[in-house]
UniProtKB/TrEMBL annotation:
UniProt protein name: ATP-binding cassette domain-containing protein
Biased composition (Gly residues): 318-327
UniProt entry keywords in alphabetical sequence: Antibiotic resistance, ATP-binding, Nucleotide-binding, Transport
Cross-referenced SMART domains: AAA (SM00382)
Origin species: Tomitella fengzijianii
Membrane topology designation: Peripheral membrane protein
PANTHER family noted in UniProt: ABC TRANSPORTER ATP-BINDING PROTEIN (PTHR42711), ABC TRANSPORTER ATP-BINDING PROTEIN NATA (PTHR42711:SF5)
A single BP term in Gene Ontology: response to antibiotic
Extent of Basic and acidic residues compositional bias: 329-352
Pfam families, A to Z: ABC_tran, DrrA1-3_C
Region (Disordered): 310-352
Family: Belongs to the ABC transporter superfamily. Drug exporter-1 (DrugE1) (TC 3.A.1.105) family.
């Protein structure tokens, strides 16, 4: 469904070059749900916008849904759906009419657009909302309407840019079910960007991890976690000063990797969690430190990312960690900036 080789995009900003995407090779097969995971600024949206013809690559080639990205961008657009972070439905429009108008832009007859739209509303849990204005919908309903719009012309491949950002945890889990249903019941191939690890873990068949514009790992969530190996010990302390001391202690455990100290939290990977935990309890006791909590767990995708890049996805912004789904001020500001940028140049290059 998607085959890209050496895809790259450079932006010029105040005489400086930003290599947002730096030679990406990727393959997505029909019927897969593939997650593009990476921290803020890693190059996810830029890659997505190239694959959906909204942005011309500076280098590289790709076929998307059987069409050459450079030679046949119109063919690509006809065959794919794209759901941007900012959504596509006008807040004041009637939801059903908006979807039908959208489908008719693709040359679909009104009768067919209405029939397919009704069916999409039913399968995406939007029954009863045909006449509703998007501005009067919940966040989850709006996102499901955005996805319905992306599927209005029955594409076999749909791109979702951070589909659950800003939703509460229940609405996120509900949307994951709907996205899985698209694949299971309609055979739709889904390529989505996310910086939520739990989303990539629960929803995706395969994950591509991107950092600084390059793919740094790919595989099923389980295969990626198995690559890390060992166990992770996590210590929560009351004071950051204690965390620094504990960081030095855990670094001395047999076979331990370099520990990660973040605020009052310390994480370290060790070959055997059980025996290391016992040794650490003795060390902490000897140093007169009483932690708030101490636990050992199997590696998560965050540990995979930490091992690959030396950074935690959690460090890269609010809500990017363990599934906190509600928006805080930082999140809103970031999304606001993003919306402005995406809306400003959402048209395909060359159409301006
Ligand atoms: N139009 C542009 N002009 C200049 N630089 C840009 C432009 N678009 C993106 N960039 C830069 O390219 C890099 C990658 O941005 P991109 O939006 O693709 O990242 P991302 O992984 O989608 O991040 P996020 O999770 O915040 O959406 C960033 O350094 C960004 O500042």
């Amino acid at each position: 469904m998607i085959h890209a080789r050496g895809l790259a995009r450079t932006f010029r900003k105040r005489r400086q070059e930003v290599r947002a995407v730096d030679g990406v090779d990727l393959d997505v097969e029909a019927g897969e749900i593939v997650g593009f995971l990476g921290p803020n600024g890693a190059g996810k949206t830029t890659t997505l916008r190239m694959l959906t013809t909204l942005l011309r690559p500076t280098e590289g080639t790709a076929t998307v849904a059987g069409c050459d990205l450079r030679k046949d961008p119109v063919g690509v657009r006809r065959r794919i759906g794209y759901v941007p972070q900012s959504g596509a439905a006008h807040p004041e429009a009637r939801a059903g009419e908006e979807l039908v108008d959208h489908a008719m832009l693709y040359g679909i007859s009104k009768a067919q657009a209405v029939a397919h739209g009704r069916e999409l509303f039913e399968s995406l849990d939007l029954h009863g909302l045909w006449e509703r204005q998007p501005k009067a919908m919940s966040g989850g309903q709006k996102r499901r309407l955005d996805i319905a719009m992306g599927l209005a012309h029955e594409p076999g491949l749909v791109f979702l840019d951070e589909p659950t950002t800003g939703l509460d945890p229940q609405a996120r889990a509900n949307l994951w079910e709907h996205i899985s249903d698209l694949r299971d019941h309609r055979g739709t191939t889904v390529f989505l960007t996310t910086h939520y690890m739990d989303e990539a873990d629960s929803l995706c068949d395969r994950i591509l991890v991107i950092d600084h514009g390059r793919i740094v790992a790919e595989g099923t969530p389980d295969a990626l976690k198995a690559r890390v190996g060992g166990d992770v010990i996590n210590v929560e302390l009351e004071q950051p000063e204690e965390a620094a001391r504990v960081g030095a202690l855990v670094g001395g455990l047999p076979g331990a990797d370099a520990p990660s100290v973040s605020g009052t939290r310390v994480d370290v990977r060790v070959p055997h969690g059980g025996s290391a935990l016992m040794a650490l309890v003795r060390e902490l006791d000897g140093a007169g430190i009483t932690p708030l909590s101490l636990e050992t767990r199997r590696p998560s995708l965050d540990d995979v990312f930490l091992g690959l890049t030396g950074r935690s996805l959690r460090e890269d912004g609010p809500g990017s960690g363990d599934g906190g789904g509600t928006l805080d001020a930082g999140d809103r500001e970031r999304m606001g900036e993003k919306h402005a940028r995406v809306r400003g140049d959402e048209r395909p290059e060359g159409s301006r």
